[in-house]
């Protein structure tokens, strides 16, 4: 009896305000309240609220047979609570249905899993506490920032007691194997759910693309593709940004109607149902062990880390930020610690990516900056002030006059 | 495709980016199979243009220097001008021109080199004997002093005056008024000097004499100085006219431009069948300033030649401080004052920086004064005008190039700086910002942000490294070949529109 496993990512970074070099030592407020509030309210209105309504309706309509999962970052929850409490409440409504699973991740949507294991563990715990506090469930399945995964990370997360992780079903990792089975990681206690990126991206990226030969995508058509998996797979992992609904694909594209009709169309084949990730690993045994010899993410076609650490600026910014970890954690200053951790959010480094800039691609779409260079400048200015003014450390070599 | 191209200067004798652009575009056009006759007012020797026929109408139509110790029938003409030398087509063109004027040319082309070529850089032309009466030393001097000015004037000009009468009625007044006076007055032959209008008129007159009997498909002229000649040629021949705008008077002078130049620009652009702008920025300026419909203006961005990366001088010299460079004319258009003001904000934070202003111009004295007022002269250097190798050396020493232009049709110098591995900050009010993504960009008036960007490049070395790495790759893709393809496309569209 094959299953569809829906997982949605909900995240909003604390974007920095314009922070020129000359503010260093004088200005210690780093974030653009107005912009962050504006974006959160806009996304809540276009996506979170209407999509949550649709999900609640579907769960209600199918009396518990429609199930979904989310991971919501701590920084997104904080911003919802501050700028749009209604959106936060509607996620709590979803939690109460019992049909929604919340996955674990780093509270700050950081790259700590790659650079700083001690920090990683602290952020993961902080996030798990938050999930328990807000939604009454402690996560048992883990989703690392941007689906960044390799064997080392799998090992690390297994040690922290998680039973499964979700990851990208990258072609070079899978080889001839199908993403539509549960796999075991190199740690036998850790299961892996791999994203079926073709079918996921049909919804997330191609849904409204009029140049696509399958346009327009309808719920019956998509359900038909899903049903074809019967006999060749056990679980279809559809993982995507939650903003797919209403924000990347606008309401006018018909995305909400599609979502509303999809479960009914899937259920037309009596074998199929919907499960959350922890239910998937309970029901299905791993088909095989799978090695992730390289670090994989779900970003770009490269599906690696180059979106965050591909150039000299990113490497330098990451190093300068993570180098402060030991110092800032030893201070017993929760405000400074929280400030620093907000600066670890992966988005800041993503904005500095230069690799596809000429194509005016998704990096530019998501960036609040005019260019990756300005993103770097702004970040380094803020980090320099944090280092010198908040931590009262001597200027680093780079920043010394 | 055969194109008559009119320019005002050609490397290495250039005063701005126009000559460089003409060289780049014409080379690439010739690779596209376009046959070009390129006419400039003066050739100085040393021009390297094997890809096309480079013509100097002043040499052809009678501006011949006659050294007194030579026989009057044998005149030296300086310049490495293939037209006048042993290039047979050129000689026969001249012969045909003279022939059409009812003048018989004695001797066959092969005999014209009889005087012997003594120096490869000097072409010897044996002046036909019929000219001798006019060109004895005494009458030559008289002519120079008198009627026709110091450049002298040959028969072609008189023939032109005849032709001009028939043109009179169809030329726009701004251009008509320019032509005859300047021919008879005959200005000095100095580059961008003397009475520019006389020179422009003289160029037009001579170009008219030069091109007869040649079967061109299109006339393509670069910037206002060549517009009168181009418009007159169109009137004379009926050929389609493409005018290429590298900069407008507005770009050079803001709102205080010379009205006569603006009139010539407008008259030319109105008469043109197709206008080419070097950027969308310039396109919209042409539309706003001269009312030219946007549909008539195509955009062809400049390219750049992949040059061998010049080894950086500063590494040899171990120059002690970081250098932030402004290089260009020190005029209103280039925004030198914003550079100075930004420097004053940066210097307190980066004590070992050196700001360099390379170039001269009418705002230079004010800039020197301002640097003193601000008390930053220890960190500020004025080099004056640089040329040739000095420019290359300066670029290669720079840690950062800043182009804060108030109005910049393109700004090819930013691409040059990049080819010397320097990161660049460019104003958003520049055409080059349309094609360059790997640069820091700023509104020219935003001095605070300019200072922030400068200090960041100096403080965070990775920034400059990444910018120059990525920009270098980007600039290598900005090839003149792409510009030429676009230009040919516009030629074809123009021809199709006119014949259709």
Structural commentary:
The complex is a heterodimer of chains A (401) and B (500). Chain A is α/β, with parallel strands linked by helices and 401 residues long. In chain A, 45% of the residues lie in helices and 11% in strands. Chain A has helices spanning 33-61, 74-83, 85-96, 112-115, 117-135, 151-159, 171-174, 197-204, 219-227, 255-267, 277-283, 306-309, 312-322, 325-329, 334-342, 346-350, 362-366, 372-390, and strands at residues 3-10, 68-72, 100-102, 141-143, 164-168, 183-184, 191-195, 235-241, 245-246, 249-250, 273-274. In chain A, the strands form 3 sheets. In chain A, strands 1, 2, 3, 8 and 11 form a 5-stranded parallel β-sheet that branches. In chain A, strands 4-5-7-6 form a 4-stranded mixed β-sheet, with helices on both faces. In chain A, strands 9-10 form a two-stranded parallel sheet. The longest helix of chain A is centred in the first third of the chain and has 29 residues, at 33-61. Chain B is α/β, with parallel strands linked by helices. In chain B, 43% of the residues lie in helices and 14% in strands. In chain B, α8 (196-210) runs parallel beside α9 (227-237) and α14 packs across α18. The longest helix of chain B is centred in the C-terminal third of the chain and has 20 residues, at 480-499. The chains are: A alpha/beta (401), B alpha/beta (500). The interface between A and B is medium-sized, with 22 and 25 residues.
Concise overview:
The complex is a heterodimer of chains A (401) and B (500). Chain A contains 18 helices and 11 strands.
Keyphrases for this structure?
heterodimer; A: 401 residues; alpha/beta; five-stranded parallel β-sheet; four-stranded mixed β-sheet; B: 500 residues; Rossmann fold; six-stranded parallel β-sheet; 15 strands; 43% helix
